[in-house]
TrEMBL record:
SUPFAM superfamilies: Thioesterase/thiol ester dehydrase-isomerase. This is DUF4442 domain-containing protein. InterPro entries: DUF4442 (IPR027961), HotDog_dom_sf (IPR029069). Gene3D superfamilies: Hotdog Thioesterase (3.10.129.10).
Length: 150
């Protein structure tokens, strides 16, 4: 399955209302990497004027979902991707727009091989949150699974 930035954005915005609510922008989406952007929006600021922690969590989780759907889109007829757990670390104050860059923590072929062997694979997705100057403001790991249908 080849997905361009616009179609992945449209698909996730239709399936996940928070993507629409936060006006997330899809900068790059491939099976190897997904980059999403949270625009600077005062209605989603925290008490110090930067993006709220919940908005940044949603940005990062959405980037992880975009890479998972792109990397495993050809498996959707037999398995549903689900987030199992997530851990986030806020490192520096984020101000202005924030981008989230997600990368798979295991080769997709290894995950699919486990699914084909009849197991329910789990795999991490690492996400770096950055402000416009490139400084990393947060890091998140989301562990996903492919739950077999039926």
């Amino acid at each position: 399955m080849t997905v361009d930035n616009a179609s992945m954005g449209d698909m996730l915005a239709a399936a996940v209302p928070m993507v629409r609510t936060l006006n997330l922008e899809f900068i790059e989406v491939s099976p190897e990497r997904a980059v999403l952007r949270l625009p600077d929006q005062p209605e989603y600021h925290n008490h110090v004027g930067g993006p709220h922690a919940g908005a940044m969590f949603t940005l990062a989780e959405s980037a992880s979902g975009a890479i998972v759907l792109t990397a495993f889109g050809d498996q959707l007829s037999r398995a549903v991707p689900l987030a199992v757990r997530a851990e986030i670390h806020y490192r520096k104050l984020a101000m202005g727009p924030v981008t989230a860059t997600a990368t798979l923590g295991r080769p997709a072929a290894d995950v699919v091989a486990e699914l084909e062997a009849g197991t329910r694979p789990e795999f991490p997705v690492s996400i770096a949150l950055r402000r416009e100057d490139g400084d990393v403001t947060g890091e998140m790991t989301v562990v996903w699974t492919l739950r077999p249908n039926g």
